[in-house]
Amino acid sequence: MKKLNTWKVGFLGFQHVLAMYAGAVIVPLIVGPALHMNAAEVSYLIAFDLVTSGVASLIQVVGGRHFGVRLPVILGCTYTAVPPIIAIGKMQGIEAVFGAVIASGVAVMIISQFFSKVLKWFPPVVTGSVIVIIGVALIPVAMKNAAGGEGSPTFGHIENLFLAVVTILSVVLINRFFKGYVQAISVLISLVIGTIIAFFLGMVDLRPVMDAGWVRLIQPMYFGVPEFHLSAILTMTLVALVSMVESMGVFLALGEVCDQKMRPDRLKKGLRAEGMAAVISGFFSSFPHTSFSQNVGLVALSKVTKRSVVVASGLILILLGFLPKVAALTMIIPTAVLGGAMIPMFGMVISSGIRMLEKVDFHRNENLLIVACSVGVGLGAAVVPDIFSQVPQSVKLLVENGIVVGSFTAFAMNLLLNRRQDSPSEGRGSNRVSFQEDSSVEATL
């Protein structure tokens, strides 16, 4: 693709925002009412969420000497933290939640110093499996959205399925008949097409846009000074560890999509940036952030890997936090339309994982077992999360996330089955992780 001007970068960035927006705001939308907050307080939670998501994404993508993986990655509030946040908030107050978020961020920055050393245990058979798991674990979310959204009274109605199909076809046809920039923003165009059709079907509600204000100021520690309780800190740190595993998978997936090998020190900077993002989020009355898997599919589909696009996304998210009316405008996109766009995006993640698995020697039965069991467990946990309903809460936090439990399965089985294998030579069938120097893999703005 030719050099992108400011407007093109902005539209590509906005496309990323639309892909992650619903997932980003769902946490405050759930937590706020659960903690008996009024509409104005929930609105502030959403604003803080958007601003801190933007700041966190900028830290991650721009990076520096000590922070940032410097890949086109978007950060948003992690859904894994919802049950602990509600439990802490009800028992110890919302101030304890933000204190625990800050402390967990510090813990992540410390743990990341050692956590990245496990990268050598992620050969192509593990990395490819993890990337496939990320994709297949997200597909059920896309399908539920395509049907109208889980819990929706119109779930599965023909209108929702029609909108999802139209959106999918729009993505496919644009990628078939257009090239360059139009192809890169195929998801954005498809979302607009789907929303326009939904409007004429009477499925678009403009009242939230009319009711929203124009400008809102962001105040640090809006809900009070953070409080630090040991039990809350330990709980949130456990959530952070789960997010670190998931984020590492996202980094590896993006590295594959962007054709960049991940060095341990680069991975460490990425995890450390997530810790810093949590510290900032706690001070600004927001929740833990993690790298969003869905945007990996968008990068793979658009083939645009420039970090400047995600810089634009971060700036747009910050702007949306200060402009409620504009933020509300992004909420009018019907869930079915979003689901239709998600299906090809998440499918592209699976394709990237399959491409990486081409490097694996499948004549060895051990590698077949690693892929079979890890993908099976990851997909099973994503589709049937109730299978772990009777396990202790502390364990459930680790196993009910399909991406995490599937990734751990791949990691553990590789240690078990390939541990005694002699170091293979480079080339097809190798299970060795190769690294490049940082200077050769840094993406340009």
In words, what does this structure look like?
This protein is an all-alpha fold. The protein has helices at 6-34, 39-62, 82-92, 94-115, 124-146, 158-177, 180-184, 186-200, 207-211, 230-257, 264-283, 294-302, 307-322, 324-329, 335-357, 365-383, 393-399, 402-418, 438-441, and strands spanning 75-77, 289-291. It has one domain (6-350). It is built from 19 helices and two strands. The protein has a two-stranded antiparallel sheet with strand order 1-2. The chain is globular and about 60 Å long. The two termini are 14 Å apart. Keywords: Cell membrane, Membrane, Transmembrane, Transmembrane helix, Transport. It comes from Paludifilum halophilum. Belongs to the nucleobase:cation symporter-2 (NCS2) (TC 2.A.40) family.
List the helices and strands and how they pair.
Blueprint: H1 6-34, H2 39-62, E1 75-77, H3 82-92, H4 94-115, H5 124-146, H6 158-177, H7 180-184, H8 186-200, H9 207-211, H10 230-257, H11 264-283, E2 289-291, H12 294-302, H13 307-322, H14 324-329, H15 335-357, H16 365-383, H17 393-399, H18 402-418, H19 438-441
Antiparallel strand pairs: 1-2
Tell me briefly what this model is.
Belongs to the nucleobase:cation symporter-2 (NCS2) (TC 2.A.40) family. With about 450 residues, this protein is mostly helical. It has helices at about 5-35, 40-60, 80-90, 95-115, 125-145, 160-175, 180-185, 185-200, 205-210, 230-255, 265-285, 295-300, 305-320, 325-330, 335-355, 365-385, 395-400, 400-420, 440; strands at about 75, 290.
Q: How many helical stretches?
A: 19
How far apart, in Å, are the first and last alpha carbons? Answer: 14 Å
**Could you state the order of secondary-structure elements as H and E?**
HHEHHHHHHHHHEHHHHHHHH
Q: Look at the helices and sheets and give the structural class.
A: mainly alpha
Low-confidence stretches: 422-430, 432-445
User: Main sheet?
Assistant: 2 strands, antiparallel
Strand content: under 5%
Classify the oligomer. Answer: single chain
Rg estimate, integer Å = 21 Å
Number of domains: 1
Widest beta sheet: strand line-up:
1-2
By DSSP, the count of extended strands is 2
GO molecular function: xanthine transmembrane transporter activity
Main location: membrane
Pfam families: Xan_ur_permease (PF00860)
Keywords: Cell membrane, Membrane, Transmembrane, Transmembrane helix, Transport
